[in-house]
Amino acid sequence: MSDTSTPVVIHRADYAPPAFLIDSVALEFDLVPTRTIVRNTMRMRRNPGAVRAPRLELLGEQLELVSVAVNGAPHAAARAHEHGLTLDDVPDAFELTIESACAPAENTTLSGLYVSSGNFFTQCEAEGFRRITYFLDRPDVMTTYTVTLRADKTAYPVLLSNGNLIEEGDLPDGRHFAKWEDPFKKPSYLFALVAGQLVALEERIKSASGKEKLLQVWVEPHDLGKTRHAMESLIHSIRWDEERFGLELDLDRFMIVAVSDFNMGAMENKGLNVFNTKYVLANPETATDTDFANIEAVVGHEYFHNWTGNRVTCRDWFQLSLKEGLTVFRDQEFSADMAGGASNEAARAVKRIEDVRVLRQMQFAEDSGPMAHPVRPESYVEINNFYTMTVYEKGAEVVRMYQTLFGRDGFRRGMDLYFKRHDGQAVTCDDFRVALADANGRDLAQFEGWYSQAGTPRVSVWTNYDATALRYTVTLKQGYGDVAPAARETQTGPLLIPFAIGLIGRDGADMPLRLDGESAAAGTTRVLEFTGTEQTFTFVDVREEPLPSLLRNFSAPVVVEYDYTAGELAFLLAHDSDPFNRWEAGQRLATRELLALAARAAQDAPLSLDDSVVAAFARVLNDETLSPAFRELALMLPSEAYLAEQMAESNPAAVHRARQFVRKRLAAALRDDWLAIHERHQTPGAYAPTPEAAGHRGLKNLALAYLAELDDPAEAVKLASAQYAEANNMTDRAAALSALLAASTAQETPAAESALADFYRRFEKEPLVIDKWFALQATQRGTAARPVIEVVRNLMTHPAFNLKNPNRARSLIFSFCSANPAQFHAEDGSGYAFWAEQVIALDALNPQVAARLARALELWRRYTPVLREKMRAALEQVAAQAKSRDVREIVEKALV
C-alpha cells in the first residue's frame, strides 16, 4: 500500500495460512552505507495446508531489484513493484535466489537496515524485514537462517547476527566476513544484524543444566564503562527464568547491542537483542534510580521474550499481546521479585503501584478514546500503531488474572503445558488461554472476552450488613458506563472478573472470611469469581459491620465504583493491610478533593482544603512503619493528566490550579515535617541503586519538591543548591535541578539558570543526560511572562537538538506535549500549533515516531469548547498534510 493511497484495512477474520513455506534461508550482505547488496537464497515449497496460489507474492519496500533466479536459472516471470515482487510460473518446490540493493545511510525511518553513528543496525519488527530483502514477511513463516556479513574491516571490525558464529576471516580487498547460523526457526521480524566500531563487556556463566554460555553487551568504545548494570540485569534475568519457570537460555551466546537511534526501547531478536542506549548505559553520575530500575526491567523483558515470543511466536500481528502482554507480566514479576522476593508484599506492592499508575493514567485513557481496541484487535491500517498500552499493559493485566485465579503453581502448570504444546510454533491468544485452562482443569471460555472486548469495565459495589444474622452481603454489577464507540461495538457479555476483597473491623484488623456455604473461615483476602452481570456474595459470622477493602492488589483492570466517605478512606489509608489498597485509599481521597477544587477553580471560586486531608497525609509522611518507597508513592498527588481524565469536560488550567493549590497547602502545613524528612533520608556514602537506597532518595527528593512550592522558597533554593553541588549521583542532582526550576516560578532566582548552564557543561558529551536536560525544561511550570512553549521553541534551535534522533525528539517535544498539560493546553492554542508543526516534520522523517506524537490530541472531544475547537483545527491541519499511513490512521480516527 502506498502511503498516499486509500488506506487498506487489515482484518483478523481474513487470516489465511501462507501459500508458500520457506524451509531455509541463506543471506549474504555486502555492507556499504550508500548501497548495500543483499543476496537472499531460499528453499521454498507450496504450503499443503493452504489454498493453492497462482503465483508467489513476496513483500518488499524501498528496494532495488538486481536479479532473480529459480533453481539457479534467471527467472523472466518476475515483476518488482511498489509493494514487493511477483513471480509467476514457480514449481511446487524450488530454490529462489534474489539479489537486491538498499540504501541504509538514507533510511531515517529506522526500520529495516539503517546507519547510526557510522554503524549498521536493523529493526525488523513489525514489518522492517521487507526493507532489507523481498520475503514472506509475516510472523507465521518460520525458518532457519544462515547469514554471511562482509564489510570493510577497518570501518566495521565487528560483524554480528543471530545465533552462533560458525566462521570468520579476512578477504583480499581489506574487507572481512563473519558467518552466523541460528539453529532455531524464527520469523523474519526476529532477524538482526549489527556491524561497526563496537566493544563488548563479556561474562561466561553456566546454565542450570551446567552448559557454558557467553554473554556480551556491545556498545561504542566510550560507553564500555556504563555496561555493568545491564550485564548484571541480564544474569539476574537468566537465573530468574530458570528458577521461576524452568526456562534455560538455549543458545551458546546471548548478545545485547546498544544504539542511540532507535524507535522503541529494545528488540528481542533471537540471541542478538538491539537496545536503545537509554536501557543499557548507566553509572551513578549519568543515570537515575529510575534509569537503573528501567534497565533491569527492559533487559529482563527482552530476555524473557526468548521463550515468550521467540520460541513460541505470534501467528499474526493481531495476536501481538500473546508475546507482549505475557512478557510484560513476566518482567513485572521479575522486578517485583528483585525488589522483595516472593514474600515481601510491601516491597512488591511498590512495583505493583507503579505499574497500575501507568495503566490507569495511560491505558484507561486509551480505552475511552478513538484508538480504543481490544487486547486482541480486530483490524488495523498500520500495525506499528498497535504497539499500544492496551496490547502491552492491559495485556499484562489479563495474564496476571490467570495467576490470580490459579495461584503461582497453577500458572506455572499452564506455562509448562503451553511450551510443551507449542514450542517452535506460531500460535494465538486462544492457544495460550486453552493451555492455562487445561493445565488447571477449568473451562475458561468466558475469559475470552478479555481479549475481544474493548473498554475499561466498571464494577459497581453495594454492601449490606445484617447485625442480627451476622451476614454481610456484597453485590457486584459490571458494565462499561459511557464508553467509546469501539468499546460498545465489541461487548458480547459479562466478563469473568477475579475480584479480591477483604473486610476490616473497627480495630483496623482484617476479619477472617467465610462465604455462605463454607464450613470454616479461610484467610483474610478472598478472590471472588465474578461472572454475571450482577452477582451477590454473602459472608457469614461477621461479628461487626466491616469496612470493605475492594479489588485488593488491583486484581483486575477495572474501575471500582463504591461510595466511600472521606473518613472511611482516611481509615483505609491508616489501617488497610493490603499495601496497594492503602495507597489506593489515599489516591481516592486526594482525587476527590482535587476534582472538587478543580470545579471551583473553573468558576474562579476561592479554594480551600479541609484540615482532615492534611492530617491524613501527615500520618503517612511520619509513619516510620511504612517504607520510604511506599510513602513517596502515597504522598504523590494524582497527575494532572489523570485528573483531567476524570472530569466530564477536561479543563487542564483548572486542574493545574487545583493541584498546585494542594501542593502549596501541603508544603506550608507540613513544612517542618518535609524539612525533617529531607534531612533524615540522606544516603551518605557510595551510591547504590538498591530498592532500599532508592526509596530513601525518592522520599527525600519528594520532600524537596514540596518545599520548592512554598511562597517563600528561599530555604528550598538553599537546600537544592547545596544538593546539586554536592550530589554524587544523577538522581539527587536532577531532583535538585527540578526543585530549583519549580522554585523559580514563585520567585525569580539566578540559581535555576546557573544550575541549568552548569548541568549542560558537565554533561554535554553524554547524550542520555542531555535528554534529561531538555526534558526538565520542557516540563517546568513556566510563568505568564515566560511560557514554556517559548523555552521549547528556543531549545529546538540549540546545537544539541536533533529531530532525527527519537530520544532527543521525545525528550523535548513529547515531554512538552504529553507531560506538561497546563502549558501545552494554553488557551491561545500555541501548544497545538507547535504539535501540528512537529507531527508534520517528523512524518517526513520517521512515521512511527510521528504517529506516537500524533496521539497527544486523540482525546480532543473531552476538553472545554475553547480548547476543543483549536485542537480540531490542528488535527485537520495534520490530516491534510500528513503522508504516512501511520499518522493518517491516528488523526483520521480522531476526527471521525
From TrEMBL:
<dbReference type="GO" id="GO:0016285">
    <property type="term" value="F:alanyl aminopeptidase activity"/>
</dbReference>
<dbReference type="Pfam" id="PF11940">
    <property type="entry name" value="DUF3458"/>
</dbReference>
<keyword id="KW-0479">Metal-binding</keyword>
<comment type="function">
    <text>Aminopeptidase N is involved in the degradation of intracellular peptides generated by protein breakdown during normal growth as well as in response to nutrient starvation.</text>
</comment>
<dbReference type="InterPro" id="IPR001930">
    <property type="entry name" value="Peptidase_M1"/>
</dbReference>
<keyword id="KW-0645">Protease</keyword>
<dbReference type="GO" id="GO:0006508">
    <property type="term" value="P:proteolysis"/>
</dbReference>
<dbReference type="InterPro" id="IPR045357">
    <property type="entry name" value="Aminopeptidase_N-like_N"/>
</dbReference>
<protein>
    <recommendedName>
        <fullName>Aminopeptidase N</fullName>
        <ecNumber>3.4.11.2</ecNumber>
    </recommendedName>
</protein>
<dbReference type="GO" id="GO:0008270">
    <property type="term" value="F:zinc ion binding"/>
</dbReference>
<dbReference type="GO" id="GO:0008237">
    <property type="term" value="F:metallopeptidase activity"/>
</dbReference>
<dbReference type="InterPro" id="IPR027268">
    <property type="entry name" value="Peptidase_M4/M1_CTD_sf"/>
</dbReference>
<dbReference type="InterPro" id="IPR024601">
    <property type="entry name" value="Peptidase_M1_pepN_C"/>
</dbReference>
<dbReference type="Pfam" id="PF17432">
    <property type="entry name" value="DUF3458_C"/>
</dbReference>
<dbReference type="InterPro" id="IPR037144">
    <property type="entry name" value="Peptidase_M1_pepN_C_sf"/>
</dbReference>
<comment type="similarity">
    <text>Belongs to the peptidase M1 family.</text>
</comment>
<dbReference type="InterPro" id="IPR038438">
    <property type="entry name" value="PepN_Ig-like_sf"/>
</dbReference>
<keyword id="KW-0862">Zinc</keyword>
<dbReference type="InterPro" id="IPR035414">
    <property type="entry name" value="Peptidase_M1_pepN_Ig-like"/>
</dbReference>
<keyword id="KW-0031">Aminopeptidase</keyword>
<feature type="domain" description="Peptidase M1 alanyl aminopeptidase C-terminal">
    <location>
        <begin position="568"/>
        <end position="895"/>
    </location>
</feature>
<dbReference type="Pfam" id="PF01433">
    <property type="entry name" value="Peptidase_M1"/>
</dbReference>
<feature type="domain" description="Peptidase M1 alanyl aminopeptidase Ig-like fold">
    <location>
        <begin position="455"/>
        <end position="563"/>
    </location>
</feature>
<keyword id="KW-0378">Hydrolase</keyword>
<feature type="domain" description="Peptidase M1 membrane alanine aminopeptidase">
    <location>
        <begin position="230"/>
        <end position="447"/>
    </location>
</feature>
<keyword id="KW-0482">Metalloprotease</keyword>
<feature type="domain" description="Aminopeptidase N-like N-terminal">
    <location>
        <begin position="107"/>
        <end position="190"/>
    </location>
</feature>
<dbReference type="Pfam" id="PF17900">
    <property type="entry name" value="Peptidase_M1_N"/>
</dbReference>
<dbReference type="InterPro" id="IPR014782">
    <property type="entry name" value="Peptidase_M1_dom"/>
</dbReference>
<dbReference type="InterPro" id="IPR012779">
    <property type="entry name" value="Peptidase_M1_pepN"/>
</dbReference>
<dbReference type="InterPro" id="IPR042097">
    <property type="entry name" value="Aminopeptidase_N-like_N_sf"/>
</dbReference>
